[in-house]
Amino acid sequence: MEQPNLSSIDLAVIAGYFIVVFVIGLWVARTTHDSDDLFLAGRKLLWPAIGLSLFASNISSSTLIGLAGAAYDWGIAVSNYEWMAALVMLFFVVFVAPIYIRSRISTVPEFLERRFDRRSRLYVASFTIFTNVVVDCAGGLYAGALVLKLFFPELDLFMACVGLAVAAGIYTAAGGLAAVVYTDMLQATILLVGSCMLTYYAFAEIDFSWTTMVSSVPDSSMHLMLPLDDPNLPWLGTLIGVPILGFYFWCTNQFISQRVLAAKDLKHARYGSLLAGALKLVVLFIMVLPGVIAKLKFPALERPDLVFPTMVVELLPVGVVGLVLAGLIAAIMSSVDSTLNSASAMVTLDFIKPNYPQLSSQATARIGRYVIVLFMAMCAAVAPLIMHFKGLFQYLQLSFAYLVPPAASVFLFGFFWKRATARGAFWGMVSGHVASAIVLATWIADIHQLHFTLVAGVTFGVCSLVIVGLSLLAPERMRDEAREVMYDAEWIRSLSPAVRGGRLYVALSVGLVVASAALIGFFW
Question: Between these two residues, 512 and 359, which has the higher pLDDT value?
Answer without folding.
Answer: 512
